[in-house]
Automatic annotation (TrEMBL):
Keyword Transferase included in the entry's annotation: yes
Domain of life: Bacteria
Name recorded for this polypeptide: Nucleotidyltransferase
Stored Pfam families: NTP_transf_2
Gene3D superfamilies noted in UniProt: Beta Polymerase, domain 2
GO MF: nucleotidyltransferase activity
Polymerase nucleotidyl transferase domain span: 4-46
Entry keyword set: Transferase
InterPro entries, sorted: NT_sf, Polymerase_NTP_transf_dom
Organism this protein belongs to: Duganella margarita
Protein backbone atom coordinates (compact mmCIF):
# COMPACT_ATOMS: atom_id res chain seq x y z
CA UNK A 1 0.00 0.00 0.00
CA UNK A 2 1.23 3.50 -0.79
CA UNK A 3 -0.01 7.08 -0.85
CA UNK A 4 2.01 9.94 -2.33
CA UNK A 5 1.39 13.59 -1.49
CA UNK A 6 2.88 16.86 -2.67
CA UNK A 7 3.58 19.61 -0.16
CA UNK A 8 5.94 22.55 0.10
CA UNK A 9 6.14 26.09 -1.20
CA UNK A 10 4.45 25.52 -4.57
CA UNK A 11 1.42 23.99 -2.86
CA UNK A 12 0.86 27.22 -0.94
CA UNK A 13 1.45 29.46 -3.96
CA UNK A 14 5.00 30.60 -3.14
CA UNK A 15 6.42 30.51 -6.65
CA UNK A 16 9.93 31.87 -7.16
CA UNK A 17 13.42 30.64 -8.03
CA UNK A 18 13.60 28.80 -4.73
CA UNK A 19 10.21 27.13 -5.03
CA UNK A 20 10.02 23.40 -4.59
CA UNK A 21 7.55 20.56 -4.47
CA UNK A 22 8.27 18.18 -1.61
CA UNK A 23 7.00 14.64 -1.97
CA UNK A 24 5.71 12.53 0.91
CA UNK A 25 5.44 8.77 0.46
CA UNK A 26 3.25 6.94 2.99
CA UNK A 27 4.10 3.24 3.04
CA UNK A 28 3.28 0.17 5.11
CA UNK A 29 6.66 -1.49 4.65
CA UNK A 30 10.17 -0.73 3.44
CA UNK A 31 10.14 0.77 -0.06
CA UNK A 32 13.67 0.47 -1.49
CA UNK A 33 12.41 1.56 -4.90
CA UNK A 34 11.81 5.08 -3.58
CA UNK A 35 14.65 7.59 -3.77
CA UNK A 36 15.22 9.03 -0.29
CA UNK A 37 16.63 12.16 -1.91
CA UNK A 38 13.31 12.81 -3.66
CA UNK A 39 10.77 11.55 -1.11
CA UNK A 40 10.12 12.00 2.58
CA UNK A 41 9.20 8.41 3.41
CA UNK A 42 6.99 7.66 6.42
CA UNK A 43 5.26 4.50 7.50
CA UNK A 44 1.58 4.76 8.38
CA UNK A 45 2.05 4.10 12.14
CA UNK A 46 4.62 6.90 12.37
CA UNK A 47 2.26 9.37 10.73
CA UNK A 48 -0.54 8.33 13.07
CA UNK A 49 1.82 8.96 16.00
CA UNK A 50 2.69 12.44 14.68
CA UNK A 51 -1.04 13.18 14.38
CA UNK A 52 -1.64 11.97 17.94
CA UNK A 53 1.03 14.26 19.39
CA UNK A 54 -0.05 17.34 17.42
CA UNK A 55 3.37 17.59 15.79
CA UNK A 56 3.91 20.72 13.62
CA UNK A 57 4.80 18.53 10.64
CA UNK A 58 1.44 16.77 11.01
CA UNK A 59 -0.32 20.14 10.95
CA UNK A 60 1.75 21.18 7.93
CA UNK A 61 0.63 18.08 6.04
CA UNK A 62 -2.97 18.37 7.20
CA UNK A 63 -3.25 21.95 5.97
CA UNK A 64 -1.15 21.88 2.81
CA UNK A 65 -0.49 18.37 1.46
CA UNK A 66 -2.19 17.40 -1.80
CA UNK A 67 -2.81 13.78 -2.76
CA UNK A 68 -1.25 12.80 -6.09
CA UNK A 69 -1.38 9.00 -5.87
CA UNK A 70 -3.39 6.48 -3.86
CA UNK A 71 -2.87 2.75 -4.03
CA UNK A 72 -6.44 2.01 -2.97
CA UNK A 73 -8.35 5.15 -3.94
CA UNK A 74 -8.44 6.50 -0.38
CA UNK A 75 -6.95 9.73 1.00
CA UNK A 76 -5.04 8.54 4.06
CA UNK A 77 -4.16 11.94 5.51
CA UNK A 78 -7.64 13.38 5.05
CA UNK A 79 -9.25 10.34 6.61
CA UNK A 80 -7.22 10.87 9.79
CA UNK A 81 -8.84 14.27 10.25
CA UNK A 82 -7.06 17.13 12.02
CA UNK A 83 -4.10 16.36 14.29
CA UNK A 84 -4.35 16.77 18.04
CA UNK A 85 -3.65 20.27 19.41
CA UNK A 86 -0.02 21.38 19.37
CA UNK A 87 1.23 21.52 22.96
CA UNK A 88 5.03 21.24 22.70
CA UNK A 89 5.70 24.87 21.84
CA UNK A 90 7.80 25.63 24.93
CA UNK A 91 10.29 22.85 24.25
CA UNK A 92 10.36 23.79 20.57
CA UNK A 93 11.00 27.45 21.43
CA UNK A 94 14.01 26.37 23.50
CA UNK A 95 15.29 23.95 20.87
CA UNK A 96 15.24 26.42 18.00
CA UNK A 97 16.52 29.33 20.08
CA UNK A 98 19.48 27.17 21.13
CA UNK A 99 20.10 26.17 17.50
CA UNK A 100 20.14 29.81 16.44
CA UNK A 101 22.52 30.88 19.20
CA UNK A 102 24.92 27.99 18.63
CA UNK A 103 25.03 28.61 14.88
CA UNK A 104 25.47 32.36 15.33
CA UNK A 105 28.30 31.80 17.82
CA UNK A 106 30.02 29.42 15.40
CA UNK A 107 29.71 32.02 12.65
CA UNK A 108 31.16 34.74 14.89
CA UNK A 109 34.13 32.52 15.70
CA UNK A 110 34.94 32.46 12.00
CA UNK A 111 34.03 28.85 11.38
CA UNK A 112 34.87 27.71 7.86
CA UNK A 113 31.35 26.45 7.21
CA UNK A 114 29.71 29.89 7.09
CA UNK A 115 27.01 28.83 4.62
CA UNK A 116 26.06 25.87 6.78
CA UNK A 117 25.84 27.99 9.93
CA UNK A 118 23.75 30.62 8.16
CA UNK A 119 21.52 27.82 6.88
CA UNK A 120 21.01 26.57 10.44
CA UNK A 121 20.24 30.11 11.60
CA UNK A 122 17.55 30.35 8.93
CA UNK A 123 16.12 26.96 9.88
CA UNK A 124 15.96 28.01 13.52
CA UNK A 125 14.25 31.30 12.68
CA UNK A 126 11.71 29.74 10.38
CA UNK A 127 10.83 26.88 12.71
CA UNK A 128 10.66 29.18 15.74
CA UNK A 129 8.20 31.48 13.96
CA UNK A 130 6.18 28.62 12.50
CA UNK A 131 5.84 26.92 15.88
CA UNK A 132 4.78 30.22 17.42
CA UNK A 133 2.16 30.82 14.74
CA UNK A 134 0.79 27.30 15.20
CA UNK A 135 0.60 27.74 18.97
CA UNK A 136 -1.29 31.01 18.41
CA UNK A 137 -3.83 29.22 16.22
CA UNK A 138 -2.74 30.99 13.01
CA UNK A 139 -0.24 28.60 11.40
CA UNK A 140 2.19 30.02 8.86
CA UNK A 141 4.39 27.48 7.07
CA UNK A 142 5.93 29.93 4.62
CA UNK A 143 9.71 30.28 4.32
CA UNK A 144 9.07 33.89 5.30
CA UNK A 145 7.18 33.04 8.49
CA UNK A 146 9.54 35.16 10.67
CA UNK A 147 8.48 38.22 8.68
CA UNK A 148 4.78 37.32 8.78
CA UNK A 149 4.17 36.69 12.49
CA UNK A 150 3.28 39.52 14.88
CA UNK A 151 5.54 41.17 15.74
CA UNK A 152 7.64 40.40 12.66
CA UNK A 153 11.37 39.83 12.85
CA UNK A 154 12.93 43.34 12.72
CA UNK A 155 15.51 42.36 10.12
CA UNK A 156 15.84 43.81 6.64
CA UNK A 157 14.47 41.84 3.73
CA UNK A 158 17.98 41.81 2.25
CA UNK A 159 19.57 40.20 5.29
CA UNK A 160 16.74 37.71 5.67
CA UNK A 161 17.09 36.86 1.98
CA UNK A 162 20.77 36.11 2.58
CA UNK A 163 19.75 33.57 5.20
CA UNK A 164 17.27 32.00 2.79
CA UNK A 165 19.94 31.85 0.10
CA UNK A 166 22.25 30.09 2.53
CA UNK A 167 19.56 27.49 3.20
CA UNK A 168 19.06 26.82 -0.50
CA UNK A 169 22.81 26.61 -1.08
CA UNK A 170 23.28 24.24 1.84
CA UNK A 171 20.37 21.91 1.09
CA UNK A 172 20.12 22.02 -2.71
CA UNK A 173 23.28 23.65 -4.03
CA UNK A 174 21.03 26.27 -5.64
CA UNK A 175 21.99 29.93 -6.02
CA UNK A 176 25.01 32.25 -6.02
CA UNK A 177 27.74 31.87 -3.42
CA UNK A 178 27.58 34.22 -0.46
CA UNK A 179 30.09 37.05 -0.34
CA UNK A 180 32.07 38.19 2.68
CA UNK A 181 29.89 41.32 2.74
CA UNK A 182 26.73 39.17 2.83
CA UNK A 183 28.03 37.22 5.81
CA UNK A 184 29.25 40.29 7.67
CA UNK A 185 25.88 42.03 7.22
CA UNK A 186 23.96 39.06 8.65
CA UNK A 187 26.38 38.73 11.56
CA UNK A 188 25.54 42.30 12.54
CA UNK A 189 21.80 41.97 11.84
CA UNK A 190 21.51 38.80 13.94
CA UNK A 191 21.65 40.86 17.13
CA UNK A 192 17.93 41.60 16.75
CA UNK A 193 16.97 37.93 16.90
CA UNK A 194 17.30 36.99 20.62
CA UNK A 195 15.09 39.90 21.83
CA UNK A 196 12.53 39.11 19.14
CA UNK A 197 12.44 35.45 20.13
CA UNK A 198 12.01 36.42 23.78
CA UNK A 199 9.14 38.71 22.82
CA UNK A 200 7.31 35.91 21.01
CA UNK A 201 7.85 33.59 23.97
CA UNK A 202 6.44 36.18 26.36
CA UNK A 203 3.40 36.68 24.12
CA UNK A 204 2.69 32.96 24.23
CA UNK A 205 2.98 32.91 28.03
CA UNK A 206 0.21 35.51 28.25
CA UNK A 207 -2.25 33.42 26.24
Amino acid sequence: MMHIYAFGSVCRGEVDNGSDVDLLACVDEAAPELDHCKYSIYRYPRLRALWAEGNPFAWHLHLEARLIFSGDGSDFLREMGPPQPYVAVESDYAKFQDLFMQSWNELERGANSATFNLSCMFLALRNFATCHSLAQGQPIFSRRSPLLVAPPLPMSVEDFSTLMRARLLSTRGHGDRLTFEDIRAVLKAAAVVPPWMNTLRSLHERV
